[in-house]
Amino acid sequence: MEFKVGSHAQQVIDLNKRIKRLTSHLKNYKKDHVTKLSLFKLVAKKKRFLKYLKNNNFEQYKYLVDKSNLKEVGL
């Protein structure tokens, strides 16, 4: 299943890639506090998008969680 470029599902996929990249960066540079702050913001944004998908388009949410091995979002 492919998602449109600006859709919430596609944004979650893109955010997940950025989060993985920043996490690997922080493993090497533990004192990079600016990156750590931006990582926290991205995680919160991803959580908001997943919550929105869960409430408004459950099929896409379930597919995304199963396919990308993401944790399910609680309400």
From TrEMBL:
> Which GO CC annotations does the UniProt entry carry?
cytoplasm; ribonucleoprotein complex; ribosome
Which of UniProt's keywords are assigned here? Ribonucleoprotein, Ribosomal protein
Gene Ontology biological process: translation
GO terms of molecular function: structural constituent of ribosome
The family database entries (SMART domains) matched by this protein are listed as: Ribosomal_S15 (SM01387)
Q: Which InterPro entries match?
A: Ribosomal_uS15, Ribosomal_uS15_bac-type, uS15_NS1_RNA-bd_sf
Tell whether Ribonucleoprotein is among the UniProt keywords.
yes
Q: Has the keyword Acetylation been applied to this entry?
A: no
Q: Which family is it part of?
A: Belongs to the universal ribosomal protein uS15 family.
The protein, known as: 30S ribosomal protein S15
The species this protein belongs to is Candidatus Mycoplasma haematohominis
